[in-house]
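Could you help me review a protein record that somebody else here produced? This is what I was given.
***
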Amino acid sequence: MKRKWFDKKVLILGLSKSGTAAAKYLASKGAECFITEKKEADEKMKETAAELEKLGIKTEFGAHSEEFLDGAYTAVTSPGIPPHSEIFQRLKEKNIPVISEVELAYLETDTPFVAITGTNGKTTTTMLTSAILETELKAPACGNIGVPPCSLLDEKNDYFVCEMSSFQIETSNGFRPQIAVWMNFTPDHIDWHGGLENYFKAKAKLFAPEKKPAFAIFSALDERVFEFGQNYAGEKFFFGKEMEKNCAYIKENAIFFKRAAGSDEKIIDLNEIQLVGNHNYQNVMASAIVAKIIGIGSENIKNAIKNFAPPEHRCEFSGEINGKLVYNDSKATNPEASIFALKSFEGKTVTLIAGGRDKNTDLTEMCNVMKETVNDVVLLGEAAARFEEEFRKNGFNNIHNANSFENAVDIAFSLPNQVILLSPACASFDMFSGYEERGKVFKEYALSKQQTV
């Protein structure tokens, strides 16, 4: 239910895309908005603050002052701020409720949400689901994908297809999507959540009894998600395995959908899909289930899948350069994501570029997959020493060390393998502002090799 914001003081935590979008929306409804950012302001932040000032939105940097906190009606948080942080404790002491930007958007609209979460694959699934729905409806992709839903509230939409990180779910207590999808669960963001079980509970919160989406969709191939889904009390669907009803699965090199026993419908042949690898077929199956639930025509579903290209930085084909197939999978910031990518190139010789800021995740399974799929690995960044130690301990020894990002690409081009795959299994913050910058630099430098090698 929409609230009346006129003359209410709202505190926005963080000068992020979501924080800025929330502030602009609330200010347009008459709220007094105060954005508090713990980081010191750089030039880009100062420019943004100056633009917001013209809208009557106040900003502060380098601290969270009492002036900004006192008297706040509510606080809207950015995804990167942990609930155990000092600012959350101070807000709790002052009895100021905290909500996510996604929940704010949910409370301010009657448009239903499709919420997609999981450790890996959620961005591709969100974008593909939006593309399928948009063949008949207006259903923009938003959320953790980089488009705040608050920025879309003044448009008329049929659905919001919202990528939900565990951070956003954690601070979305009243959010209830019409359809919720859980792609998979593997260790990630352990420090943020304070443990693996807390990370699982954050994801599971999207399906809590008090929220209970009208339809819930679960992976049948992820053991823990499948077990959770089997115990889910509402109407549920599974992807990846043929079941008696309510499922999408692969048979005879095609994806099928079944709503009731005996109602098997072929959706698309695998060779018609541009997305590479079994993990992407799971994304396709999840998206197809959402579309079938909503009632999108089968031909539109098929055509949208056929025409959908991989999102940037997600096993993205960057070109054939000097006889090598170059793939940018910079979004792979954990070993599980890299494993998905590596399995996509079975039968080809592969040079893997990995490393960056170490998340200290277990590398055993990645090593096992590498022994089957990778010919050489080039390591760089803060994680290089631990990665090399773990790889050698687990029997993978074709390791090359790079002293810079460009040097890593140079080494990869010097090796006699068919595929060069950047799939770091690490965060990028030791060298770049984010995985996007890392992927962009990789593609640009790799393309420059066309003239220099």
Observations:
- Residues 435-452 form the longest helix (18 residues).
- Residues 338 and 423 are 5 Å apart (CA to CA).
- The chain is about 35% helix and 20% strand.
